[in-house]
Amino acid sequence: MRTLTRRFHAETGLSPLQWLLHRRLDRARQLLETTTLPMDKVAWHSGMGTADSLRQHMVRRVGVTPTAYRTSFSRGQIAR
């Protein structure tokens, strides 16, 4: 397991868990931008589990809540 982790980090710059979390957050952002799904469904479909978990990870990585992210993106779409 340590060899896998070392090699994975050498290739991606991230641990396998960090990489997976980034992919899940990318998926959540995509869903927030393109759907009107409720937060619990966005969390489930992105693999984050719960809306609370999604919120905590979004704030930590992106700096805003999922609701604020969706609102900000929606305003950007209208302005175009």
Keywords summarizing the entry:
80 residues; 0% strand; mainly alpha; 5 helices
Structure description:
The protein is mainly alpha-helical and 80 residues long. It has 5 helices and no strands.
- Structural class call reads mainly alpha
Instruction: Give the CA-based shape.
Output: elongated
Estimate what percentage of residues fall within beta strands: under 5%
Number of helices: 5
Which SSEs are present, and which pair or pack?
Blueprint: H1 2-12, H2 16-34, H3 39-46, H4 51-61, H5 66-79
Q: Quick summary of this structure?
A:
The protein is mainly alpha-helical and 80 residues long. It is built from five helices and no strands.
